[in-house]
Amino acid sequence: MTDPLRLGIAGLGTVGVGVVKIVQQRADLLAARTGRPVTISAVSARSRDKDRGVDISGYAWEDDPVVLATRDDVDVFVELMGGSDGPAKAATEAAIAAGKDVVTANKAMLAHHGQVMAEAAEAAGRVIRFEAAVAGGIPVVKALTEGLAGNEISRVTGVMNGTCNYILTRMQSAGLSYDEVFEEANQLGYLEADPNLDVGGIDAGHKLALLSAIAFGTQVDFDGVALEGIGQVTIEDINQAAELGFRIKLLGVARMTGRGLEQRMTPCLVPENSPLGQLEGGTNMVVLDGNSVGQIVMRGAGAGEGPTASAVMADILDIARGIRLSTFGQPATSLIKANRAAVATAAPYYLRLTLKDKPGALAKVAAVLGDCGISIDRMRQRSHGSTDAPVLIVTHKVAAPSLQDALEALPKTDVVIGQPVALRIENV
Ligand code: HSE
Q1: What's the 185 CA to ligand 1 centre distance in angstroms?
Q2: Do 106 and 318 contact (CB within 8 A), yes or no?
Q3: Which end of the chain has fewer CB atoms surrounding its CB within 10 Å, N or C?
Q4: Is CATH 3.40.47.10 the right assignment for the domain spanning 140-301?
Q5: Active site residue 207
Q6: 33 has which bridge partners?
Q7: Measuring from each residue's beta carbon to the nearest atom of ligand 1, which residues come in under 6 Å?
Q8: What residue spans define the domains of the chain?
């Protein structure tokens, strides 16, 4: 048997412990699959004495992850600390400079620094792999870089934050408000230390930006992702959308258009009978469209010890086998700078308006929409007991600027009360 592949693991939280367990418990399987033992030389974390339920006494301890990353007995630096900057970035840079390969679950770091880091690693003949950074246990990075490498990818779509999907589906099933379910998710420990990373769409936006880079051969452009979180989604819209046959999801969509790269992570309606519409709880789903393969749907756990450690191990095992893929599926220096699409592709929209219940009110709304070039597909006025009439409209495809014009014009009529709600419909 050849030399072992020696790991240095920085970060012994849920995922780090999961990786240690796999290395300890499946040593024979890993060696059989790679042809060499996979071992751990050293570990690093915030607290040395914490009981993590695994025996780490056989590994060297380093307080400083930068020192860990540069140890002579480490071949692969496994970065599981998180954070876009600070120790994670410093240690990753140090690892590359010291000639180590890197495996990371850190979507924030790569979304902000992935291009520079990938160029540095490739110039040094090293690899950075990040399967665990996107959609937890779903092997979507591998699918794009390997299984679908012969395709032109036209679209990447998905639910990439389990916490948001838990909140939205729980609101619907329990009939609870956003605030109530947010608190429940908090009690269950589902939320990131900074909850806005989840509910603000940032975590999922990081993931989408990383997938876009591979899918479209572009430099990671997180700032180009149009982001909107789920904080404004109401139980009323969830219920009304359900009555029209839709579910509301925090949906990522990336597509290369003739106008440039379009990337969005926003609440959208999807058909309730579609795979995405049927995705319940804290699960993730990624839908890939390729010109040869057609559509691929991948579903699985987006977080948690086992699923995320499984993805980390996939990268480690590739390195053990001598598989040395470019970080983003092609040499980093060949990735082109993304030209951002200025406006989103036209789509149907769900509109919810509250109208004064008086003759001619609906006609005025229809006239405003018509003036803005918006055609109505379906319209429903709810029965109501007060003087205000809730109205739901599903439009045909609308260009984003036309929708914006309508949203500005509607409240200026004397029949629309408050600001209309508009949500994009994605027929995935
Ligand atoms: N907080 C994320 C989620 C997992 O809820 O999906 C880590 O990216």
Answers
A1: 12
A2: no
A3: N
A4: no
A5: yes
A6: none
A7: 161-163, 192, 198, 203, 302-303
A8: 5-104, 140-301, 349-425
